[in-house]
Amino acid sequence: MRSSNPVFSRRGFSRDTGTAGFNGQQPQAGGPTVGANPYATGNPYAEGATNPYATNPYAPQDTQLGAPQQARGNVMTIDDVVSRTAMTLGTVVLTAVLSWLLLPVDPANLTKSYGIAIGAFLVALVLSLVQSFKRKPSPALILSYAAFEGVFLGVISAAVSTYIADGVVIQAVLGTMAVFAGVLIAYKMGWIRVNRRFYGFVMAAAMGFMLLMVTNLLFAVFAGGDGLGFRSGGLGILFGVIGIILGACFLALDFKQVEDGVNYGAPREEAWLAAFGLTMTLVWIYLEMLRLLSILQGDD
């Protein structure tokens, strides 16, 4: 089974040597039996879910998720996830800053600037889809995605800051950091429980949200204006808040994915997939935050 990040379709932890991977879905704690297939019933959150990395010779061999384990060799750790995520997000930030400085947005070259942004976005989209369908993570592919995503964010952010709402970019960055910190604290404190019901609700809400946004875009392209008005005014504010909440929910899913990967002894290379997913979720939250703040400042 596969899940979807609200930004792009992506895979979670991969499948390898015949063992089931997470694919953005995480088994619940409940005394798994090593070696069995956690997806045999088609339910990634079923009680008695099993260790999908039982064939990894370096994985801990304890059968109880969360039990004290003696990790050996090439297994993923939180430090691995943090370092890979820092590299991926750092690439996004670096290329965004360089794009802002080297590709200035001015009235004479506005069309060219938007063309560069759209081109970078499409390349990032293709790279993310290629990685989503690969069996194993490719650091070069993920960092290339981050670089092109950074170009897109840099040009768009410069345009919004210059022509729509001066200073909104810093506010959007701080807002994104606040959402990340808030969700992390809530997850660690147990205020957010990522289970089958939570996952199903988030997936349904994300699909509905994306369908509405695509419909709005089609109306805007063929009928002109702002389409159905989902991206401006009161409705724009409402859907901006919904978009940020969805991003926060996907952060919780990402945290659960990482936690289970570490507990189950996922191979160290899987940390790149965790970084990939976290980066896409944070980009989604930043863009929704940027649009929401732009609407709010434009209404002042």
Describe the structure.
The protein is 61% helix and 0% strand. The protein is mainly α.
Radius of gyration: 20 Å
What is the overall pLDDT average?
77
**SSE class:** mainly alpha
pLDDT under 50 segments (min length 5)? Answer: 1-48, 56-71
Strand fraction band?
Answer: under 5%
Query: What letter string, H or E per element, gives the SSE order?
Result: HHHHHHH
SSE topology sketch:
Elements: H1 78-102, H2 110-133, H3 139-163, H4 168-188, H5 196-223, H6 233-264, H7 271-298
In short:
It is built from seven helices and no strands. With 300 residues, the chain is mainly α.
What are its keywords?
about 300 residues; mainly alpha; 7 helices
